[in-house]
Amino acid sequence: MARKKSKRTSAPQAAGQAPTVTWWEGLSGSAQHGVCLILLLIVAVSFFAPALFSDKALIGGDTIQWRATAQAMLDYKAETGEEALWAPNTFAGMPGYLISFPKKIPQIDIVPQTLRAFMWPVSHFIFLLLGAYLLVHFLTRDKLSSVLAACAYGLTTYLPILLIAGHNTKFIALCFAPWLVLAFVYALRKPGLLAGLLFAIALAVHLRANHVQITYYVTFLMGIWWIVEGVGAFRRGEVKSFAVATGWLALGSVLALLMIAQPYLSTFEYKNFSTRGATTGGGEGGLGWDYAMAWSQGLGELVTLLMAGAYGGGSPTYWGAKTFTGGPHYVGGIVLLLALIALWRYRRNVVWALGISTLAMILFSLGENLEFINRLMFNVFPLFSSFRVPETWLSVAALALALLAGLGLFYVVRREPTPEAEAEKTRATFIAAGIMVGLVLLLFLGKSAFFDFERPNEGQQIAAQIVQSNPGVSPDDPRVQQTVDQFLRETRVERIDLFDRDAWRTLIFLLLATTALFLYRREKLPAWALQSTLILLVVVDLFGVGRRYFNEDLLKPVPDVEANIPQTDYDQFILQAQAEAGGPGHFRVLSLEGNLSQTGRPSFFYESLSGYHGAKLQRFQDWLDHLFIDPTTQRISDNALDLLNTRYVVAQGQLPGMEVVYQDQKTGFAVNENPDAVPRAFFVGETEVIGTPEETWARIHDEIFDPRTTAILPEAIDFITSPIDSASTVSVALERFSPREIVWNIETDAPRLLVASEIYYPAGWNAYVDGELTPIYRADYLLRAVPVPAGAHTVEMRFEPSSYRNSLWVTGLSTLFVYGGVIVLLALAWRRRREPDEASTEVKTA
């Protein structure tokens, strides 16, 4: 059988001229794919070689924080074989769905997950490259253009920055993004049941990466693409076929949601009680504007897409308006040049869709810096207010730009039908190159007019630091201003130098790319040579910048997450006290070693009021915002600590009303003992009904309020607790404590309300008195209360959310249906292809 030849020529040909077949085009399609995949594998292994072949490990800061937060849950799983579901050691206890909640029903993502154990992050990165390659190949049938797009997306600097920071779920979601878009485009162009099922698989896998924010952004891109395709179908009179394709996509979406019921059914349930979905007091809500808009991309910082070091790179040299940053969203001048060519000359629906998506995502990334657009989206568009860090939009914009670059390169090497069309393409190519080169030169020559190379309010901040470190020096002292001015001058020189070096760097790569394009248009280079040259330039460019943010020096010297969580002497003291008290479940610890919402380390060792999580319970956030600090004294509230069973407070010194019971000489921290902490569970003899959160907080702050004797209820209940006096008989003893079960043996001589210093969470916690289900009421705004009759009883609290049980059945059955359906359809298609071959063989034999 003759080998199929490519229709593409080695260089632009005149109309009617016989095409010249190059060595590349002489290869079979399978051989070309093989070469491309080997190249992608080399890129993946080479870039992540420091993590694969050194003694150091890729353990990001967030990974360490996660491990500390999840340790109690992991220990429970190791001891019992069951999922903990509840995280008892962070923020006084919270659902653990977004901390450690493995997917119980296996799907296709088990393949990279299995590889992760010995080749992370290449295990997932190679799927990113392969997905982007197949996506552009499906759109163009051009393999080398597909390689360029894959490298352009895979080597964008944001991905290694994510890994160093420990944002692993975001990295995995971005790795699976090209596959989701590929399944979407396949369903649009080849609608049918198989396409719908494949889209269901891709969407489910992407959601199982556990970063809904990235899924939301990719879905936004696909939504714009769908609108553009719909307009095109209407103009062509193909509305019916477009509607059919939409129907299969809708079916796939529904099936995907069923396939991710575990873990998302429980997660969605939790959202309504978390800072991502609840308002104060419960109910639907979202993030506040200021919190959601943190890390908005600066308008001027968009230049870092073209010149990586224009804003100083990452912290501490970064001088933009963000609090700090790991580095820029750099895609490179060559990628932007090819994307520009595609947007200008390659007039296709796919280009329109990607262009509009890129523009929209760039505008959204500006966040508070483009308030008139983003405020509208924040208030009106569904779920827009559920996510923070607007610059994250640029991670998906980088995917769109990479796809546009692949399409642009395909357009450049595609043979046009007439010499006039080829000449027009030549002019357009060089005009685009001239625009990019001119833009870089303009920024380089006019940098002082466009940029001031100074952080907002940097002078005032430095002056404040000088005054703070030099007691007795006035902010008005001329020497302070002289020091500030000198620092700013020296720093400005360093920042300008970095700007200049990266401007020249981008300019050189653009000139090399332009030279290759010139030689190709002058028929001095064949198409494969041009494409290979541009691939090499893109890889060298992005590889070099990426190495600034991913190298052996940034890896952890100890390849064990636990070993990177330091244990202090005061931790050992607290652990000894915990053992003497009978183990976990007897007291909590407040550590003031850092921001309470950004400190997960203590959670590794014991039950803590601090933690590290992006979606804590709203009730605990309200405790932080409204109860933790006494508004009268502006000090830590005694009642706030007492309510949460806080026995020890770790601080730099002695705190008012407490006794230092241990002094850590190495760290300087002291362990303060709180003598008034309420027990973990106790009886109260009185109740008050207060309806509003504000009144409840005010009552708790009242100096005459005693949480040991009185419980505040949001509404009256059909139970009257008996007063407690010196003659009363009450006792509470902890028998068993674990993330999913707490058991007390109690005794009371009269009906009373048992208050447990456990965070109130109605979506899963059930109470049983002697095995009989009993209601749990909310007490003191954030605790649990259980009515108990007179006598000796066993009181149990079990975390048994029905959403978890139901989700396993839904996910299991839907996964079996979808994957089984794909297997059946592929088997039928294979059988149909064999039947003609068998019939042909029989005829030849006869």
Task: Give an account of the 3D structure.
The protein has 846 residues and is α+β, with helices and mostly antiparallel strands. The protein has 3 domains: 52-102 and 560-677, no CATH class; 105-453 and 497-552, no CATH class; 681-800, no CATH class. Helix content is 53%, strand content 10%. It is built from 28 helices and 17 strands. It has a 5-stranded antiparallel beta sheet with strand order 10-11-17-13-14, with no helix packed on it. A hairpin with a 2-residue loop joins strand 13 (765-769) and strand 14 (772-774). Helix 6 (122-140) packs parallel to helix 9. The model is unreliable at 1-11 (pLDDT under 50).
Largest β-sheet summary: 5 strands, antiparallel
Record field, number of beta strands: 17
In round numbers, the mean pLDDT is 93
Helix content: 40-55%
Strand content: 5-15%
In total, the number of domains comes to: 3
Assembly status: single chain
Distance between the termini: 22 Å
Gross geometry: globular
Give the number of helices: 28
Placed side by side, the strands forming the largest sheet appear as 10-11-17-13-14
Radius of gyration: 31 Å
Regions with pLDDT < 50 over 5+ consecutive residues?
1-11
Kindly name the structural category: alpha+beta
